[in-house]
Amino acid sequence: MPVGYSADGVPIGMMGLAAWGAEETLLSLGRACEHYLENEVGRRRPAGEGCWADVLGGETM
């Protein structure tokens, strides 16, 4: 899940793990991270030519 950005503006993600059957814990973690991103950091999309890649077609957009 996305958790913020580096000093250079690169998105940083985090993976959560929980015990078998503890999906509620992971959903709570995801909800907290989403709340933080929306209210504290904000969401950003990279701008400019060449920042998106078509992973199926192999082209840079």
TrEMBL record:
SUPFAM superfamilies reported for this sequence: Amidase signature (AS) enzymes
- Family annotation (InterPro entries): AS_sf
Please give the name of this protein: Amidase domain-containing protein
Q: Which organism is it from?
A: Morchella conica CCBAS932
